[in-house]
Request: fold
Amino acid sequence: MVGKRHRRAGLRHLRCATGTVPLLWVIDQRVSLTVSANRTTVHLQERVYPPVTFDPDSPLSNPAFRRIWLAGVCGGIVRWLEIVVVGIYVFDITGSAFLASVIAMLRILPFAPAGPILAMAADRFGVRRTYLVLVRMMIGLTLLQAVLAALGWLQVWHLAIGALAAGIYWAAELPLRRSLLGSVVPPTQIVAAMAIDTTSNNITKMLGPLMGGLVLQWTGLTGAFIFSTVMHVVTLRLVMQIDERKRAVPRRSGFLRNLREGIALARTNRMALLAISMSLVFNLFGFPGASMIPVVGDQQLQLSAAMVGLLTAAEGIGATLGSLVIVRYGHRIRFHGRFFASGCIIFMLMMALFSVAPNATLAWTALLISGLGIACFTSMQATLVLIGAPEFARSRLMGLLSISIGTGPLGFLLLGWTADRVGASTALQLMVVEGLIAWSIVAWRMRDVLTQPTPDNR
Reply:
């Protein structure tokens, strides 16, 4: 009887050194210890890896904005990486600097014609859907180039087609990706959103070429195109997670009709018209001056190759610093049009100062300040359209803005032709004089936008 009682008690208790303990109590203690250990682990992880939080007033607190912004970062890295990689490869196999420059120029040529066409496609099929088609096109193209490079079949004309397609994809920045950016943030955050995007663009201009050189040295051209493919796949994944707030209304207008409608919208929207007209001035008479920096540094200032590189980097440093300041204090800007126009004239005046600088210190300082002007200009370029135009008109107006930007090659050709005849320094000075005249005309015609603060009900 005693043995039986002990066996029955053994079913209900565990024998311990300190006596008998109920089985359920032991299980409960084990569960409590496990939960406590898990909580301690999570607490330690939070102390070592604190969760990422954003200011609620910052566009970065918006998941949709982060996805579109990161898609732009991926695209920027690939763009500047391929410019360096393809340029080096074409020069190595052909020995022609002219062919290398032509391949690079093909990335800019589609801006003017592709902008309105992409805007028309966005009106008809939706911005997100059109953008996804382009991303898938780039995935297939870079993957094909990687295969051709691995097999040893890649030719210069293959790279030319790829550069032209990449230029079309680049032209989608304004009518597609930046239109998406403006649609997912409230109007009060558009300035900060554009400033963040501009900052990342400036950083990718420095990061992309560095990565391109390293990838080309370590993995060759095949590895570079595989890297581009992976980045495009990441972009595809990011954009697919974005939901457009409303479906596109089908529009069956042709290219010319869509262009006429965009011009009509620009005439009635003074802020968008300022962005388009001042961008035309900047890309014809301002931005091409950057191509003369190495020439002036070498011929006029007699600098070494390393010092010319440092001189060229000053503009990018100034643009990055200026963009960071705008991210922090952009919400205080009341005269967006004046801020935009000031950036344009600051850049042109600093290019004039650079052209007559007697030493490297003054030249570097002028280029640094010119970068600040670029930050003011580029951060407001798309912002004026986004805050001044209704959402249904943004794609078409962004398409017109792409046409203005697409005139840049004409400015480069004009400046290069003049520099061959009168020298780089004199050509820069003549370009600045022409630009100041054009800037004054636009500023006078758009003085109502420049003198009035941006409406609060934008």
About this structure: The chain has three domains: 2-48, 56-252, 253-458. The chain is about 80% helix and 0% strand. Confidence is low (pLDDT under 50) at residues 4-21, 23-27, 246-250.
